[in-house]
Amino acid sequence: MKIKLIHEVRAVKSKQELANIIKAQRISERVLQDVLQKLKTGVTEIAAAKFVTDGFAKYLPAQAGGTPILAFPPIVAFGKNTANIHHEPGSSKLKKGNIIMFDFGCTVNHYCSDMTRTYFWGEPPAKQKKIYLAVLEAQNRALKKIQTGERRAKVIDNVARKFLSSKFKNNFKHGLGHGVGTVIHEWPNFKPKSEDIIPTGCVMTIEPGLYFKGFWGIRIEDMVLITKKSCKNLTNVAKDLNSAIL
Ligand SMILES: [Mn+2]
């Protein structure tokens, strides 16, 4: 029998580990709903990021040993900043017609959650709608591929990548997703050259995005549990186009 390496062992979550990840995700979802309620034209990214951290402070029970509540510093981006994959919240103010991107997660008993949602502050132009729907379709295609039993990371990545690059060349600038556990990015990885085989019982993100530097970007990220023959989406936030228009 092949001896498993530590990254392979920890990729597969026990019931308790999974319960922590799901709890972290549910708290993130409550925080997102609150943040959306608080958004107003003129609010800065820094102020909106504080809505996020304040929300986590409110909903997360005190954790033993001072476990940090954030899985990673929240990404809050408005307008052209959404084209920057790792944008740090700044002094940009929310304006009518902006795209808004939230990428955040928290930890419960050291286990992380991760989610990205993109919103439109007012009715978006046709091009932005088209690209939002393309990103969503890329995510759905990857999910469907996993549901056929495909477990080769690069094949799953390629399904989303091929679909997007056939329409928008070179605008999907990162891997399709990553494992989530006690750290926010862990083995395995959906990447074009990944040799990883995704094991049953691991939690992965599926996060296609398209980015147009100087203009805007759109990313949609869900967390899924890889099951024996399919997968289970652990993210419970609407992502249809209508729900994305605020
Ligand atoms: Mn992620």
UniProtKB/TrEMBL annotation:
Coiled coil: none
Highest taxon above the source species: Bacteria
Annotated InterPro entries: Creatinase/aminopeptidase-like, Pept_M24, Peptidase_M24B
SUPFAM superfamilies: Creatinase/aminopeptidase
Every Peptidase M24 domain range: 20-228
UniProt-listed PANTHER family: AMINOPEPTIDASE, AMINOPEPTIDASE YPDF
Name listed for the protein in its UniProt record: Peptidase M24 domain-containing protein
